[in-house]
Amino acid sequence: MDETKLNPQRPPPGLYFVATPIGAARDITLRALDILATADVLAAEDTRTLRHLMEIHGVPLNGRPVLAYHDHNAPQIVPRLIGDLKAGKVVAYASDAGTPLVSDPGFQLGRAAIAEGLPVHTAPGPSAVLAALTLSGLPSDRFLFAGFPPDKQGARRSFLQEMGKIPATLILFESPKRIHRLLTEMCEEWGQNRNVVVCRELTKRFEEVTRGPVGQVTAAFADRDVKGEIVVLVDRMEPGDTLVDLDGALDRALVSLSVKDAVAQVTAETGLPRGQVYKAALAKGRSE
Where in the sequence is the signal peptide annotated (predicted)? Predict the structure, then answer.
């Protein structure tokens, strides 16, 4: 390895948020390696991941402390790191994967350092959010990262209803165990024609990008045992678009039509599955 990489200049004291690869280890930046090589104190959500990354790139620890920092131990670790910063040390916090503070516990540390008037820097680099947006083919002039949808059904429904009205490309993270449920509920809330993109295992060997109307993408994932990191992107709501109002559509149709004909009409209007529309009609106390 080049000697300049083994002996980089030590940066000025302060807190450095270091972006790390989301898959391919070679995506790390030279500046990130310099900071990891010279920081007095290293912190990471998963210290094993950081140690492995440093080993891959030949960055020695040389006895420097590597602290685990996550949501559960933040009350104990943040004061320790703030103390190191006040002592004039270089503290590097590395994301588990991607850019710190994006679905990552670094937020509390950054806020605490700023509140103390301490210098905070960033070593930008990989981001699953921007990588997915780049590959999606969806509008990139306005986008919203909304994190993980709520796990509980009621909260998730409210979340989708709120998100569905936003005139921007939506970017979500989701667990592979819940991706089919999320896509199904998107169909139920928005109809089957809203364009979505599901990115799986970005920059890794089995990278996969699935694009199309949400009904079509839901069918593509229906019988799969999905694994890996997932980013879901949703096309923005354009002016004049309306969200599916299943209850309203059924109420209007049932005024003059039988349940069978009302279900057929509303299914055609909304693009929702016939079974879902029929179930909603029965919930209104109507039967054949």
Answer: none
Q: What is the CATH number of domain 3-126?
A: 3.40.1010.10
The token pair at 68 is 């685990």
| pTM recorded for the entire structure | 0.81
Domain ranges of the chain: 3-126, 129-234, 246-283
Distance CA 14, CA 155 (A): 39
Architecture of domain 129-234: 2-Layer Sandwich (3.30)
pLDDT greater than 70 at residue 243: no
Which three-class secondary structure string do you get for 42-84? EEECCHHHHHHHHHHCCCCCCCCCEEECCCCCHHHHHHHHHHH
